[in-house]
Amino acid sequence: MPGRTTTAVLACDPEVLNGVFPAEVIARLEQCVTLADAEPLDDFSTPRAKEALAQVEVLVTSWGCPPIDAAVLAAAPRLRAVVHAAGSVKFHVGEEVFARGIVVSSAAEANARPVAEYTVAMCVLAAKRSFALAHAYAAGEPQHSYSPDRSPSLDGATVGVIGASRTGRLVIGMLAAYRTRILVHDPYLGADEARELGVETVGLDELCRAADIVTVHAPEIPETRHLIDDRRLGLMRDGAVLINTARGSLVDTEALVRHCAAGRIDAVLDVTDPEPLPPGHPLLHLPNVMVTPHVAGSQGREVRRLGEYAVAEVERFLGGRELRGRVEPDHLARLA
């Protein structure tokens, strides 16, 4: 194959190697590149790493890749592409990488699907008040009713999506199977795109007031810290549900505790601030709050999709084709 003379190196935590890059995925990668080192690099300062970096043209990264700083770039004069088999690249790729003209790609598109699936599943369960009812049932207070007020559902609900990100858009698409009204707040979403998605764009305050379920899919940047603060939690209608699969810092934890402890709103949290929550934290014990340990993203058999996506990107890069997950310099400020 044309790219067979291209030299590549894997850079990630060795513990994630077999999950993200099982033998079949490595075999496919080796059909188009020559691996300079059979083992992944997790430290770019070692003699072994420096020897591999001197040859590398394509760096295939995943969780645990060290930062690609000026010293690493100096040690890798032939580097042409960084292909990340995971979501955000901003923890190991900086502006100096783009300044060198190096192409950057991310498998965020592949990682977004399980997050969206988790979100929609939680929308269904939370809309039915499943978590609070399960707690009551375990306490010997079984409740069952066909009353619209006591047994709500996602059918006919208004869902507010904060952030028309890859995940946010997948959630919107999946919700098409339900008779929901979808409101979106995203300063980067234009009117034409909103029409194509079949959603209404609204201000964040209006979204909080109107939605039965508010689901957060915005990036963690300084401007989004405590985006959902005490005031906006107060705007949410009684019985509303907050779902956060983005980053914990987007929600004011102390304020959320107060609103959930009062029983006014429910919450489903796959991310928290701090993360993990300390033992005994109120959010871990409130009957109307479901906290999961950051599992919405790729887990188990799902993680190989990230490796497959990255290898496909390497194939596209070597074939001179457009990359599906290409990351541009101006994306860094908005990445999760």
Please provide a brief summary of the model.
The protein is α/β, with parallel strands linked by helices and 336 residues long.
Coarse structural class: alpha/beta
| Beta-strand residue percentage | 5-15%
What is the radius of gyration?
22 Å
Order of helices and strands: EHHEHEHEHEHHEHEHEHEHEHEEH
Could you give the count of β-strands?
12
CATH architecture of the largest domain: 3-Layer(aba) Sandwich
Strand arrangement across the biggest beta sheet: 8-7-6-9-10-11-12
Largest sheet: 7 strands, parallel
Question: Which quaternary structure do these chains form?
Answer: single chain
In one word, what is the shape? elongated
Distance between the termini: 36 Å
The total count of helices amounts to 13
What is the count of distinct domains? 2
Q: What's the helix and strand layout?
A:
Blueprint: E1 7-11, H1 14-20, H2 23-29, E2 34-35, H3 47-53, E3 58-61, H4 70-75, E4 81-84, H5 95-99, E5 103-106, H6 108-127, H7 130-138, E6 158-162, H8 166-174, E7 181-185, H9 191-197, E8 200-201, H10 204-210, E9 213-216, H11 230-235, E10 241-244, H12 253-261, E11 266-269, E12 289-291, H13 304-318
Parallel strand pairs: 1-2, 1-3, 3-4, 4-5, 6-7, 6-9, 7-8, 9-10, 10-11, 11-12
Helix pairs in contact: 2-13, 6-8
What can you tell me about this protein's structure?
This protein has helices spanning 14-20, 23-29, 47-53, 70-75, 95-99, 108-127, 130-138, 166-174, 191-197, 204-210, 230-235, 253-261, 304-318, and strands spanning 7-11, 34-35, 58-61, 81-84, 103-106, 158-162, 181-185, 200-201, 213-216, 241-244, 266-269, 289-291. It is α/β, with parallel strands linked by helices and 336 residues long. A seven-stranded parallel β-sheet has the order 8-7-6-9-10-11-12, with helices on both faces. Strands 2-1-3-4-5 form a five-stranded parallel β-sheet, covered by helices on one side. α2 runs parallel beside α13 and α6 crosses α8. It is elongated, with a radius of gyration of 22 Å.
